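Researcher: We plan to redesign the surface later, but first we want a full-length starting point. C-alpha cells attached.
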C-alpha cells in the first residue's frame, strides 16, 4: 500500500521528467499539472456517472417482471397501480448494483410485537382482508433485512417507507452523505491517506454546529438500537459512509444493511471455531473475543455500538470544534471509546456516557439557529 501511495505521489507531482522539462523550456510544469488534473477530474466524473447509471441496476427489467406478476394477480402492493398502470414511479440514479442481503424472519427476537403492524400493512387495498397476492408480497418483503428494520425502527432516524409492490419497496430519498470520499472509485479510496480524508471532511462537510446536530441524532439512533421496542440491534459497519442527514441536518441512517438483530449476531458468533479474535467477526466490525483454550468465539462483543460510534465522532467532531469545548469533548469521547461490550458493563455505563455526550453537544448549539 505504501508503494502504491508513493507511485500516486510521483504520478501526481512529477508528470514529466526533468530532461523533458529541459527540452521544453517554454512549458511550465504548473500548467501541465493543471491540465493533467482537469483530465483526471473529468475522468472521475465520467466514471461516477457511469457507475451510477440506472442500467447497472436493471430497474426497468425488474419493473417489467413485477408488473407482469401484478397483472396476473400473483402479487400486490400499495404502489403497484402507480408503478404499472399510471407510470408515476421513475427510475433515476442507481445507488447500488449489489443485490440486497437477505434476513431470516425468525432473527428478530420481538417479532410477535410486529405482527399487528405487518397485518395492517398487508391489506394494501384496505378491504379488511388479506388476499393471497397480498400475503405473498408481504412475505417476500419480510425476507429483506432493510425492510424489516424499517418497520422496527422509528422514522426519525431511518428513511420513511413510502410503499411497495411485490418485493419491491420505495423509501424517501437517500439523505446527504457525511463521507465525501464515498464517491471515489473503490480502487482510488485506499490511496487517500487518513489526513486527506479528514481534510475533505473539514472542507466539504457541514459547519461544525451542523455536525454537532447530526452527531446528536446519531447518538439518539444508537440509543434506539440499544433500548428499542423490538429488541437490541448491532451496527456491524460503523463508517461515515453510513451517516447521512437531511436538508435540515437531521441525522438519517443512510444504509441499514449492516444493522443486525442481537440474536442473529450471537447465533453466528457463539461457539464458532476460531484461532484469533479476527475469526469472530460478523459483518465488518461486530467482533467477539476468541476463547483460545476452547478455540470458540464468545457471545459478547468486544465493543458496543456506542464505543464504535464515538471512535467515528472523534474524527468527525474534534476538527474545528470550539476551543472552549474541544478538551472536554475529547475527554468524553475517549472515555466512550473504552466502553466494553460485556453485557454486565454496557447496561451500567452505556446510558450515562451517551447522556453526557448528548448534553455537552446540545448545550453548545441550543438556542441558536443550529438547534
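Model: Full-length starting sequence:
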Amino acid at each position: 500500500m505504501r508503494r502504491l501511495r508513493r507511485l500516486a505521489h510521483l504520478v501526481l507531482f512529477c508528470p514529466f521528467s526533468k530532461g523533458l522539462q529541459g527540452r521544453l523550456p517554454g512549458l511550465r510544469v504548473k500548467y501541465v499539472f493543471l491540465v493533467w488534473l482537469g483530465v483526471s477530474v473529468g475522468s472521475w466524473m465520467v466514471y461516477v456517472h457511469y457507475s451510477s447509471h440506472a442500467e447497472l441496476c436493471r430497474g426497468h427489467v425488474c419493473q417489467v417482471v413485477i408488473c407482469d406478476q401484478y397483472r396476473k394477480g400473483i402479487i400486490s402492493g400499495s404502489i403497484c397501480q402507480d408503478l404499472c398502470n399510471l407510470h408515476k414511479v421513475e427510475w433515476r440514479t442507481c445507488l447500488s448494483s449489489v443485490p440486497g442481503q437477505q434476513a431470516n424472519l425468525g432473527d428478530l427476537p420481538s417479532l410477535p410485537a410486529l405482527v399487528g403492524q405487518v397485518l395492517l400493512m398487508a391489506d394494501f387495498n384496505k378491504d379488511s382482508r388479506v388476499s393471497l397476492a397480498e400475503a405473498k408480497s408481504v412475505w417476500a418483503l419480510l425476507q429483506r433485512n432493510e425492510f424489516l428494520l424499517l418497520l422496527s425502527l422509528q422514522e426519525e432516524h431511518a428513511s420513511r417507507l413510502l410503499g411497495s409492490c411485490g418485493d419491491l419497496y420505495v423509501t424517501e430519498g437517500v439523505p446527504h452523505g457525511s463521507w465525501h470520499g464515498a464517491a471515489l472509485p473503490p480502487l482510488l479510496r485506499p490511496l487517500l491517506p487518513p489526513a486527506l480524508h479528514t481534510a475533505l471532511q473539514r472542507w466539504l462537510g457541514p459547519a461544525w454546529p451542523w455536525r454537532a446536530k447530526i452527531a446528536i441524532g446519531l447518538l439518539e439512533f444508537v440509543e434506539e438500537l440499544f433500548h428499542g421496542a423490538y429488541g437490541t440491534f448491532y451496527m456491524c459497519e460503523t463508517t461515515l459512509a453510513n451517516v447521512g442527514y437531511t436538508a435540515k441536518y437531521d441525522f438519517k441512517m443512510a444504509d441499514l444493511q449492516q444493522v443486525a438483530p442481537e440474536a442473529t449476531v450471537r447465533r453466528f458468533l457463539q461457539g464458532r471455531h476460531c484461532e484469533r479474535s479476527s475469526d469472530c467477526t460478523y459483518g465488518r466490525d461486530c467482533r467477539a473475543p476468541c476463547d483460545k483454550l476452547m478455540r470458540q468465539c464468545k457471545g459478547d462483543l468486544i465493543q458496543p455500538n456506542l464505543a464504535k460510534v464515538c471512535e467515528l465522532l472523534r474524527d468527525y467532531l474534534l476538527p474545528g470544534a470550539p476551543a472552549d469545548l474541544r478538551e472536554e469533548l475529547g475527554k468524553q469521547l475517549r472515555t466512550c471509546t473504552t466502553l466494553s461490550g460485556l453485557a454486565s458493563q454496557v447496561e451500567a455505563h452505556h446510558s450515562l456516557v451517551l447522556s453526557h455526550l448528548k448534553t455537552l453537544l446540545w448545550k453548545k448549539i441550543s438556542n441558536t439557529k443550529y438547534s
